[in-house]
C-alpha cells in the first residue's frame, strides 16, 4: 500500500494495537535524526520555501495551523508547510478523479490502512469525499471530477507490503494484480468491472469492508497533524 498522507492524520496511524511492523510514526521520521551542519544550512532555504507556501493567495490554502510544530520538522521528505502538497500527500489533492484505473491493496493490520481506504474512496467517489476541511471549495473548481475506476482490496491479518513474505494471501494477491493488469491493458478483451472495495479473509473469500474500516470515511481530522505528533 502507498504512503499517501504525510500529515499522519488517519486513525490507523494512531492505533497502538496495530500489529504492523511499521512503528508508530506520529512523532514523524525527522524526530529520529540528530541535527547536523548540513541540516542547519538547509533550514535557511527551507524557511523561505515554507513562507512562500504559507503566504500563497491563490485560493484555499494547502496548509493547516497544525503543521506549525515548535519542535521542528515532522518529516524529512518535506518541510511542515508542504505536507499537504498533492505531490507529497496525494490523499489530500483537490481531486482524485480522472485518473487511470487504480488497484490499491492494504493489509488489515498495517498502519497505512486507513489512508489507503480513504484514497480509494476519494478516487472512486470524488464528489463525495473531497479531502481536508481547509481545502474546502477546491474540488468544485477542479476539472478532474470524473470518478476513477478503483479496485481496493484489504487482506485479513496482513501487515504492510505483505507480498514480500510467503503468507497465505501472497500468491492470491499477485494473481489478482496480474488479472487487474491484464484487464487494464485489455489482454482479456473484457471491460473493467465497476469500482469496488473488498475485504479478503485468510481463506481468500471476498466480502464488503467491515464497519471498522469505514471509520476513516467520517474522520473529521483528515489532513490535520494529530496533537500527539511531537
From TrEMBL:
InterPro entries: AB_hydrolase_fold (IPR029058), GDXG_lipolytic_enzyme (IPR050300)
GO molecular function, one term: hydrolase activity
Membrane spanning residue stretches: none
Assigned keywords, A-Z: Hydrolase
Hydrolase found in the keyword field: yes
SUPFAM superfamilies reported for this sequence: alpha/beta-Hydrolases
PANTHER family: AB HYDROLASE SUPERFAMILY PROTEIN C4A8.06C
Name of this protein: Uncharacterized protein
Originating organism: Rhizophagus irregularis (strain DAOM 181602 / DAOM 197198 / MUCL 43194) (Arbuscular mycorrhizal fungus)
Amino acid at each position: 500500500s502507498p504512503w499517501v498522507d504525510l500529515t499522519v492524520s488517519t486513525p490507523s496511524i494512531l492505533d497502538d494495537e496495530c500489529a504492523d511492523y511499521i512503528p508508530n510514526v506520529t512523532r514523524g521520521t525527522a524526530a529520529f535524526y540528530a541535527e547536523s551542519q548540513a541540516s542547519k544550512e538547509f533550514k535557511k532555504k527551507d524557511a523561505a520555501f515554507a513562507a512562500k507556501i504559507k503566504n500563497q493567495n491563490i485560493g484555499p490554502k494547502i496548509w493547516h495551523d497544525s503543521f506549525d510544530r515548535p519542535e521542528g520538522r515532522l518529516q524529512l521528505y518535506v518541510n511542515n508547510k508542504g505536507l499537504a502538497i498533492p505531490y507529497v500527500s496525494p490523499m489530500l489533492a483537490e481531486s482524485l478523479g480522472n485518473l487511470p484505473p487504480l488497484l490499491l491493496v492494504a493489509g488489515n493490520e498495517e498502519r497505512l490502512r486507513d489512508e489507503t481506504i480513504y484514497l480509494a474512496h476519494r478516487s472512486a467517489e470524488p464528489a463525495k469525499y473531497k479531502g481536508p476541511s481547509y481545502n474546502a471549495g477546491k474540488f468544485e473548481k477542479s476539472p478532474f471530477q470524473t470518478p476513477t475506476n478503483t479496485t481496493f482490496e484489504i487482506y485479513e491479518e496482513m501487515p504492510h507490503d505483505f507480498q514480500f513474505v510467503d503468507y497465505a494471501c501472497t500468491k492470491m494477491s499477485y494473481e489478482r494484480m496480474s488479472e487487474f493488469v491484464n484487464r487494464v491493458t485489455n489482454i482479456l478483451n473484457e471491460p473493467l468491472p465497476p469500482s469496488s472495495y473488498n475485504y479478503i479473509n485468510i481463506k481468500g473469500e471476498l466480502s464488503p469492508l467491515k464497519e471498522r474500516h469505514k471509520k476513516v470515511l467520517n474522520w473529521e481530522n483528515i489532513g490535520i497533524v494529530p496533537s500527539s505528533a511531537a
